[in-house]
Structure formats: structure tokens, C-alpha cells
Design brief:
Blueprint lengths: L1 E3 L10 E6 L5 H14 L4 E6 L19 H10 L4 E3 L3 H5 L17 H4 L3 H16 L3 E5 L3 H13 L5 E5 L19 H7 L1 H10 L4 H14 L3 E8 L10 E11 L2 E11 L6
Length: 273
Amino acid sequence: MIVTDVLAPRSGKPRAFVPTMGALHDGHRELMRVAREHVGLEGEVVVSVFVNPLQFGANEDFDQYPRTLEADRAACEAEGVNILYVPTVWTIYGESPSITVDPGPLGEELEGASRPGHFAGVLTVVGILLHQVAPDFALFGEKDYQQLELVRRMCRDLSFPVTVVGVPTVRESDGLARSSRNVYLSADDRRRAAAIPRALKAGSNATSVEQIRTAAIHELNAADLDIDYVEVRSNDLGHDVPEGEARLLLAVHAGSSRLIDNGPVHVGSDGSE
């Protein structure tokens, strides 16, 4: 495995790319496995580790974000990654970025409403990385569903020659989504956070938009979690939710940690509000 902060020109082999901020866990490793499936043994899997300052807002945890490069390197090697790309801030942004990617109206909703400017930072760094890595496939976890949808829109609208692949969320034994931020949870917060997958399950058992939201909120309130939002959206995150498959998205605070998750739901004939 090559570990580098500067990428050499790409070979002619198929290439799949997994962008990360490090602190790799089983969710990231699943992305690497799916990446390998897309390019085969003859192709290249590239993983980047870059804690992106542009997507952290005021009072967020940039300085405290876990940095575990040696463990990350071992995880990548175990998964047969070909290139571990660890760029510096200078390699990504130069002296200072004066142009960023506007995520559009969706970037100001859900996570964007709670974290102003976050998605401009995400899309800017993803856009730069996609140009630098030049992959055929880019893989993102469905846990960050809004991010996944915005990356898809950016690549479509700006004609990036890449296929964006969403990979289902990897979960703990009690259903909690794997996340680098789970390390911040106290034992009590971790216990209460187990209500998040229960809320998604409760929502999936309901049918109308309001029933789905009410069922999920009930589970979160029962665990004394501070709710940021609970919303039902269409699969492309539109406000108009037709009958059929849709997405339940939520964000809560457990102690000092802010956790997000989402899952599929089915809206029945009485699903419109």
C-alpha cells in the first residue's frame, strides 16, 4: 500500500475512491470492501484521510476530532487499499480558498440549518478530492444521507465524470450507527442513544408522514434525548412526500454529542400532510 500526501498521475486501471476524515471504523471498512467490488482485484482503491477545516463551524469539534492515522493505515492495509492519500491543508486548498461550492437550497435545510456553511465546506473538499483522485467510483455511507444526496447533485449538475455509490449504514449490535463521534459518548449517553435505531424502527412501522414522525419522536423523548429535528422527506430529500418509499431523518443531542441517522419508511395512501 502506498501512503502519500501527493498523488502521482493516475494509471489506466479502474479506480474507486473512499473519502474520509479518518478515525476509521467498520463503516469505513465496508466502504472499502464495496469499493473493491466495483473495481475488482485488478483495480485501485484509494482512501483519503483529511480532517477538513472548511466544514467545521464555530464551536464545533475540529481540534478535538479524533486523529488516529496509524490505526487508519492498519485498517486500510487490512482491507487491501492500494493508495492511502493523506493530503495537507496546503495540498487541498493552497494559501486560502476564495471559491467554494454552493450547495443550493437543500444545503440550508436539515443539517445545514443546524450547521450553517457545513455543506459548502463538504462539497468544496469533495470536489477538489474528486479532481485530484479522478476516480471512476466514489463511495459514501448512507448514514450521512443529506451529504450523499448533495454530492450526487453536485456531480450531476457540474458534470463530474464519476459514479457516486451509496453504501448502507453499518450498525452496532444494538442498531446504533457506527460513527467516529461515538467515542465521545459517556456510558449513559451511549445507553440513551440506543433509542435512535428504535425510533427509526417505530417510524418504519407507521404509514402517514405525521404518524411516522410521532412514532419516532415518542421513542426519542422516552430516552430523554434532545431532538434537533425529525423529518420525513422523499428519497431525494424533497418536501413533497409521495406515496411509496421515503426517508426518515433525525438529529439528536446525547450529552455533548450530536448524532444523526436515517432510515427508509413507506408512506401509505394517507401519507400526505
